[in-house]
Amino acid sequence: MSQKNLICFILWLLIQLLVEINCQMVPYKPKQREGHTATLIDNKLYILGGAYTGNGNADVEKDFFYLDVSASFNTQNLSWNDLSNINVVPLHYDAASVKGGASNNSLFLFGGSNDTVMDSLVYIFNPQDESWKIPEITGNTPVRKSELTGIIDHKGIMYLWGGYDEVDVNINDVNDMLILDTINLVWGKGSLFGVPSIREYYGCTLLSDNNIIYMGGYQFDQGQELTLNQVYLYDTINDNWSTETTSGEVPSGRDSFSTVLGLDGQRVIIFGGYATKDLTPEDSLYELNLINFEWRIPKIFGQIPEVRMNHKANVIGKYMVISFGFGYDQSTESDILLLDISNVDEYIWTNEFFPLLPSIPPTSSSPPLNTSPSNKSSPSISSIPSSATSPTTTVVGAIIGTLFGAALLSFGGFYLYKSKRRDDNNQVGRNIDTHGQEIIQPTSNEYITINEPIRIPASAINKNYNHAQELIPIANNERLTLHGLQQEIQDLKQIILQNGKQSTSVMENNN
């Protein structure tokens, strides 16, 4: 290979490397969509499928990605994680999804519209190993439906009511209740007695009393949005239906809106949707009181976003998290909207998301100190000066310090002796101990043995004990013994204990 060809080859490799690195550094930006699913599992909001707005339902592709909600983020700078390369679900939109399974940590996807034949009615995604599978489900297999919402209860049962019949073009909307046990993988059906009229694109959510509330929606055969002056309750425990009439500021008839349960479990919040008359931003958010079934427009702070249709909403922490939808400009407004619903008196539109911190068990508070005058013969704890309780602690600390210092002194003496034996110049050396104190080594004619006790100057005893900070010099004719060292430690202990008793007696006399 010529030099010129070699240079060209190297340049080509560099260009390929730069292109690959650049592609990896470009953050993933999903397209705007409606009719997708949004499923929260282990602090990850998984977005799957949907139709790209403005391009019709044919242009859906196989996008699959998630938003990590375990950390704070700003909606103006979202960090999406792309999983499209592992997605095996055919193109679809208007499907239903829930979090369920034996461990309550799998994504169950049901039905949906599509332009190609789907291999299964249900797909399951395992976030732990990021794998998809088609389950084997027993029972009477239902027909495929779309334009409905899936609800999961606390026992892992998935409820799929109403929607659009994707198989029989002569039926269109339906009002049957499909039931899927996501743990045992068994199909069932719910009661039709007292069931609401057929509809699609309705709003629903699971309530605290195990009822599912249904409202609004679109009736295909009539070509109209249904009113919200009535709501319908399905009892998941007793498998029956009931109806409640609403009052107050009843929203206009609408479909394709989102519905969530408030944090206190006593109210339902709805947002957006289609209506016979186009909704305004001020007419897009309502709250239904579940005690008296009265509607009201809540007090709102922050910049009110544009009305969205066919979006999804999840309650994450203290926020109603709204994802994608139709009706907003993606170049000027974020794909994610955040409504802080922690204060029932005023909801706040915000761009900042902060996850809930793990709850810390409250510590038991100390009982209040007794500040009343006390009897000198039997003083309370609060009446004793803090200094009066310190001599014992000081004595104990002094004893420990004495033992520790003696051990250090013995080790230091032995170390000096060994060093001096190896030192041929017989000169006086100086070292610095770990406390920054100067240790004066003995001259060459001084030896440290273990025969005679050490002499402690009286000045060292009379001084306040300083936890072995002051080293005791060794006289030329005095030698260190282990027995003598122990005896001196006992003497120091007696002196310190006597000083402590005298201090205590003085303070008792003063009291």
How would you explain this protein's 3D organization?
The structure is a single chain. This protein is an alpha+beta fold and 511 residues long. It folds into two domains: 31-353, Kelch-type beta propeller (Neuraminidase); 388-510, no CATH class. The protein is 18% helix and 27% strand. The chain has helices at residues 3-25, 390-422, 458-462, 482-510, and strands spanning 37-41, 44-48, 64-68, 73-74, 80-82, 96-100, 106-110, 122-126, 131-133, 145-146, 150-152, 157-161, 164-165, 177-181, 186-189, 203-206, 211-215, 218-219, 224-225, 230-235, 240-245, 247-248, 254-255, 258-261, 267-271, 274-275, 285-289, 294-296, 300-301, 312-316, 319-323, 336-340, 347-350, 352-353, 430-432, 438-440. Strands 22-28-27-25-24 form a five-stranded mixed beta sheet, with no helix packed on it. A five-stranded mixed beta sheet has the order 29-33-32-31-30, with no helix packed on it. Strand 27 (285-289) and strand 28 (294-296) form a beta hairpin.
Structure, briefly:
By secondary structure, the protein is of the alpha+beta class. It is built from four helices and 36 strands. The longest helix has 33 residues, at 390-422.
Tally the structural domains: 2
Integer-rounded radius of gyration = 40 Å
Average pLDDT, all residues: 78
CATH A-level architecture of the largest domain: 6 Propeller
Low-confidence stretches: 362-398, 424-482
Strand content: 25-35%
Can you identify the CATH class of the largest domain? Mainly Beta
What about the largest sheet? 5 strands, mixed
CATH topology name of the largest domain: Neuraminidase
The count of helical stretches stands at 4
Estimate the global geometry from the Cα principal axes. globular
Protein name: Galactose oxidase
Region (Disordered): 364-389
Organism: Rhizophagus clarus
Keywords: Kelch repeat, Membrane, Repeat, Signal, Transmembrane, Transmembrane helix
